[in-house]
Structures
1.
Amino acid sequence: MKSMSNTKDMTMKQWLHNKKRRSYSVILLIFIGLCVTVAVSLIGILIGFILYRGLGHISWEFLTTARSALRGTIGILPNILYTFYLIITTLLIVLPIGIGAAIYLNEYATNRRLVRIIEFTTETLAGIPSIIYGLVGFLLFAQGLGLRVSILAGALTLSILSLPTIVRTTQEALRTVPLSYREGAFALGATKWYMIRTIILPSSIDGIITGVILAIGRMVGESAALLFTAGTGYALVTNYFQALGTSGGTLSVALFVYATEHGNFNVSFAIASILVIIVLLLNFSVKLVKRKLRKVK
Amino acid sequence: MNTKNKRKDIVEKTMQGVFFTLGMVTIIAVVTISAYLVLNGLPAIREIGFFEFLFGQVWRSTGTDPSFGILPFILTSFYGMIGAIIIGVPIGLMTAIFLAKIANPRIAAVVNTAVELLAGIPSVVYGFVGMIVLVPFIQQIALHFFGIPSGANLLSAILVLSVMILPSIISVSRTALVAVPRDYEEASFALGATKMETIFKVSVPSARSGITAGVVLGVGRAIGEAMAVMMVAGNVSNMPELFRPVTFLTTAITRELSYASGLQRQALFSIGLVLFCFIMLINIILNFALKRGHKG
């Protein structure tokens, strides 16, 4: 930017005696300003509108009860629990695999061609749309493995879906660990696994946490991959292991069901505003972790 | 001492094996997904006939005389993608230019946060807001000008999709624009070009492949999006027209999978296979664009 302002005097002169070029610049600048305004105001209006229409419909009862056909009341506690169970289960599966894969790529792999293939397949996984994950998860986990439509089938599907996020962020974090740390550890006679366990992983933990938060964000927002794997159930199941085997809709899936099947827009707005708040919180925490990371460096 | 070393050796070897296995998981996952889609998608295509399936114009999956032609879905997905590009790319690219070349750091940080939030909002939320705000609005227009009493149509879907592809276009193009060597721009200034001329005649052309990658990434998102589109597009198997309710490849699957059986169900898997092929094609283009970008 600085170097650009140095040339300002000259460009000003050009502007003055060349009307055509001047209007070209002004028109483009106005167009850019317009586009930025559209993009930024879109998100502002979107979030404001959802919170405005939704927050009023959130009550203590709404958050802490299940849907009751008898009393005709709607509560989203089961959906909150299912979202929570699904995130926990998915992380339990995907974290060891994802972090392990990143460690292999960064610390063990010597065959560059294999590394390229693994990185290519990771990119491919990241590009597959969630409805395809839903379809394959339904065929493979719900039917093939006989898990039926359940939280466990949903968690397995989400594990593959969020694998690229975990692998990529962990890989980036591992790359920032200086080579001298590794050399120092080896010089002291540490074995590779010991070095990874005590030096590499602790020094890249912030980066890994960032990846976990990003992955949680995707899981909270996911719906197409879950509709046919975890299902749309809304019964209250407090036992975690029992919940693994039952069909349960997360908050996003519940929003879809209430909006399209029930046409209950008040409940939909309330769930949408909860989702928006979660997204805001996750975004904020990613920023916090990153800031901490920068300070340490 | 010796036994301790030996045990250490075993642990090392085991861990190496474990990490190797974990490294293979992504490959296994891609192979499994491809194999499952091909195995489950081919039977219906074989039974219906390759050309009848891909180029048939009528999808009537539940009638007594069923017909499984997915051309309407393919064309709808294609038009939806083109529409989203026409609206989304200018807005996204201009915002990226603003972030990379014009805004001061503080304003850039604010805009950046907005873009990140745009990326984080769940697709059902986009779909829902589209359903509540956009569809009634489009309905007014459709009724007034064309006498069509529905606002859930291709246009609504295109508008929602163009918003949803903004974050990928903005962030990838921005990175590409920031990476343009300063020398190029300074040389342009030295030759007397204005800032705008420099941006549009030097910076943007040299960031071409990165910008292409951003657009292709956005295209992938637009083609793969299911839920948001499901809520605003009307879900009728029409040939695409701007003010007609339509069905995308993704929503054709979502709409019927829960109750489908027999050949209808298998045909849904075939649609999944077609969608997967499109996505793989896009991935290959993306890879190509990124590689060219790295080479400069």
2.
Amino acid sequence: MNVTDAPPDRASRSAAGRPATTRRTLLLVGGAALLVACAALSLAAGSRSVPLATVWHALTDGDQSRDGLVVTGLRVPRTVIGVVIGAALGVAGAVAQGVTRNPLASPATLGINHGAGFAVVVASYALHLTHPAQYLPFAFAGAALATLAVLALARRAGDLDPVRLALGGTVLDAVLISWTSAVMLTSHRTLDEARFWLAGSLAGRQTGILLPVAVPLAVGLLLALAIAPALNALALGDETAQALGVPVARIRAAGGVAVILLAASSVAVAGPLSFVGLAAPHLVRKAVGADHRWLLPGCLVAGPLLLLTADILGRVVLRPVELEVGIVTALLGAPMLAFLARKVAR
Amino acid sequence: MTSPTTATAPRATGGALARQRRRTALLSTVAVTLLIALMAVGLGTGEVSVPPLDALRGLAGLGDPGTVMLVQELRAPRVLSAATAGAGLAVAGAILQRVARNPLASPDVVGVTGGASLAAVAVIASGAPAALISPAALGGGLLAAVLLGLLAWRGGFTVSRLVLVGLAVQSGLAAAVNLLIVRFPAELASSALQWTTGSVYGRTWTEVDAGGAVILAGIAAALLGHRQLSVLDLGDDSAGALGLPPKTARLRLLLLAVVLASVAAALTGPVGFVALAVPHITRFLAGPPTAGTLVLTALTGAVLLLGADLAVLHLLPVHGLPVGVLTATLGAPWLLVLMLRHMKPNAGSATR
């Protein structure tokens, strides 16, 4: 608990190196165990609750009963997608915050969600698409293009200017939001189809939807893990990082690419989800400290944990009606963000 | 964004100040001319066209009784509500950005538009008469501000806490609006979306009278309080030394911005972008903020919203688009170009 938000300095690490490492490992293992429990709950809970014994039975010997089919056909894909997307969003958030040195940065502030939303609404309007799986390439392209545009706007002399990054992101977001609603208002059919996707949901998707984004997800994750040590140096300020021999501009570009790959993949699969990318790094930083080499693996666990919990809540709260996970995350996230801001900001 | 320009202000010589004053006056004249021209066009065009000059005289109650009826009863409420709401939103954004010392602050950030949207969408959902939407929006905006105040209070306010908690409040309210839109049948969802994007359809004189009076009073108060804004720019310690209690002054100004934004949102819906962009546009055009540029900000907001509304009504082939779509589309490229042109030399020298 005495680990602060400040980047770890060499003295404290060498003095308390072993115990801190043990504690962090324990925390990670504990988090992973919690995630397994959460996944089990996600398989069992819902508008039709299934006893855990039946869940186990269905998973191991392919139970053909109705409960078994619900588990293998609906809940396993949903849980797997939740774990993958949660992990991607968590890591993307941590990298975005590290690269911009802004504790409130998240993939959502880079225009990812609204870029994808606009592309999906236009595609649905023009091509008469009806299924989330058909939206995937458009969402990915829209998210990636919007983020590239924001980063290009913020580029100056080969580096990213934080003020321009924030202003450009907000401006682009405002424009994309209003265009999205313009398209939806001109066509009732599009509004009816797209509003469910726009809320962000894990339901009604098969595991196969992850295949097209497997490569970008893997590359993004590797890239993020590779720049983790450099992000620690970046936290000390650009000039210090430069003096330490870290190629600041290149690290920032690599981080931007990692965020684009991870976040665009997740928005393509699950629709726009806010909050997970913002909250996971904060929670993990509280637990294991600000060292990115621990923060990123921590987010790999905390992201899915948050997303699955929100998804389970959305299924249980208004049973038999389901709340979209995107709405649950936003509603849960708001008080938490308020609490965080109350504590952090002086 | 704020720091380099405010830092250069004291260093500027009398000549530079005079030049800026002339520039602001010139730009304001242009804006007033544009505003009058746009009003004349707005009052004159429609199913029955009226020559612009006759339309303006009709607004004053002169000329052909038929024209007077047409202009005063049918067209004036819409034109006037667009102009006043644009001015109100722009001034609210300008005050928020200066008090929060954050170039991204806008009524969205303090939750006002989220509260207004949620209340209005709830009214639409409950099937209550449409006349209730405006008062509900006003109440929702103010309630959201009160909620923000309660959440951010910790034996006092700080600006960064207000902004951060405001972001949280706004995102929660937006999620609730989203929930209602997803749960609605498609027709209701459409009208809710229409409202939350901002539109000026079907305004009546009662709304315009009440809203316009409050907005004009608010802008006047902002002009009177401009000296306090400038003193606050110097920092809390200097402000205290100059005899201005920084905390209460800041709270007063924030409250003023919240009222302005809530009333404007009740008039036209939370038209996106005006509050965020107009202060930047004015700053890029006229330089560091003075009382004069605050007037220019109000005028630019009015021109932008009115022009966008006219374009939505008469130029676009698609009917029924909310005006918020066009303010963003018209304002964004302009803001981005100004940003790119302006920040290159300035920011380059600031880092060196």
